[in-house]
Each structure stands twice: as structure tokens, then as C-alpha cells.
Amino acid sequence: MTLLEYYAERYTHSSRQDWLDRIQSGAISIDKIRVSDPEMPLQVGQVLAYHRPPWIEPEVSFEIRSLYEDQHLLILHKPSGLPVLPGAGFLENTLWGWLRREYAVPPVAVHRLGRGTSGVIVLAKTAAARSGLSKALRDRAIEKRYRALATGIPQVDDPFTITHRIGKVTYPRLGELYVATEQGKSATSHCVVLERDRIPGCTLLEVTIPTGRPHQIRIHLAAAGFPLWGDPLYGMGGVAIDQNSVPGDCGYLLHAYEVCLTHPIENETLMIRSDPPTLLCPSYNQS
């Protein structure tokens, strides 16, 4: 197989002509040596690399604050708009990229927050801490409390619980998308109304999630008839309302307000909070 055949047949996100142009421009190396002959025959064991040119990443906020840190744990405030991990056009403009720049051995996030979600995120600085926190997540021993601004005014008992199942369905932009579906996995969200008409027609909620399905709060509130205010993706029923949107699109107001956990090494209880933005604070708490 030639070099061009290899790339054109295996990486079909780009056309054959695209790969030809890249090879001829010297963007491909074999065993760390740049080559430009598309008809070069390949041999078993060679290491190929495509040296992709850099791209301009979208601007993000790096207003990251440390809420707690010791030799085992790092707990941060993540701003809205900052992705946790690389993907969808983001590489260095991520929390992962910031950690690589700030720490010789970057701490590892033990859970995720959506790009548009702000607030508390927990990271492990040691293998022992990571193992302990991962087990605590599996055992549902870490309590995560969120503030959310939802459209509509719930006329249900307060507090109320949402238990729609969450799973993947086919989605044109991504291949698959998490939504509310009876074929999904069980999920539970406990909701408390903090203020009705926080802004006209919207309700401020506190949401606790013992389970941690992807985009759970966004999907659950939408499935219950109260989509997040400004959410460009999830609408009534907990399904996509715009086939051109993706989960990383921002605009909604969701904040990880508080995390309560047992320190995986010291065995002490930690309750860490991150002050929410103004619209996610009840008006009777405002000065």
C-alpha cells in the first residue's frame, strides 16, 4: 500500500486530493522523517504522523479560581464557556490546557462540567486520590448541587424529582446525542424551587443529581417541561430542538454551586462552594 492509499482509505474525513496535497507539502512523516512522495510504498512497523497545521481556537474565559488545594486534591471554579477537555475545535483553550501550563504533573478531573456550565469541579493530584474519588462517584457518595434558571413556572409539589431515562440517539452533527429516551439508562434529579419568576416566566431551581449522566440536568429539566433558559439544544421533551446545535454550545445558565465529599486520603468531610452568577441567586439574597 502506498502512503496516499493509506491515508485516503483510512481517514475519509478528508478527500483523496486533500491527502495528496498534504503529502506533497511535507505534512506527513515516516519514522520522524518528512516525506513528499505520495506513491512511497509502506512497510510493516513504520510510524506515520500527520503534522496538522495549527488552527485558531475560539476565545474562552480563564477566570479560574482555586477553591481548595492540598497535596492530593484540587478543587476549582470553572467559568462558563471553558471546555474541560479538548474537542470540537478546542485544544489549548481548555481546562486541560490550562492545567498543563500551570502544573508539572497536571491534576485529573474526576467528573466533567459542560462547556457552558460554571462552578465547582474536583480534580485529583495523585493516583490514590483519583482512585478514591472515582469509587466515591460510583458509590454515589459525592453530592453535587447545582443552580439552574429554567423556563416556565412549575406547578408541582416542591421539592420534586425527575427520573426520565437518558440515552443516545442518532444525531446528524455528531453521529449520536444524549437525550431523554425510554431506551436509556436510569437517572435521577432532585429539584427544589428557590424562586418563581426569577425573571419573568422563569424559575430558579436548586438541583441535586445522585446520578451523573451526560447533560443530565439540561435533559431532565427539558423533559419535565422546563428547559434551561437560553439552552440552544435541549427543548421540551428533553430532545434536540435545533439540528445545527451541539452540547458544547453555550447560552444557558447552569452553575455547579456546591460539592460535598469525603477526602479520599484524610477522610474528612469537605463542603466546597462557588458563588453563582447574579441571575442564579434568589432576589431575597441580593444586597
What does this 3D model show about the protein?
The chain is α+β, with helices and mostly antiparallel strands. The protein folds into 2 domains: 3-50, Structural Genomics Hypothetical 15.5 Kd Protein In mrcA-pckA Intergenic Region, Chain A; 65-285, Pseudouridine synthase (2-Layer Sandwich). It is 16% helix and 30% strand. The protein has 5 helices and 17 strands. The protein has helices at residues 3-10, 16-24, 95-102, 127-138, 216-223, and strands at residues 28-30, 33-35, 48-50, 65-69, 73-78, 108-109, 118-124, 143-151, 160-162, 166-171, 175-180, 189-196, 202-208, 234-235, 239-240, 254-262, 269-273. Strands 4, 5, 6, 7, 8, 9, 12, 13, 16 and 17 form a 10-stranded mixed beta sheet that branches. The protein has a 3-stranded antiparallel beta sheet with strand order 2-1-3. A hairpin with a 3-residue loop joins β10 and β11. α1 crosses α2. The longest helix has 12 residues, at 127-138. The chain is globular. The termini are far apart.
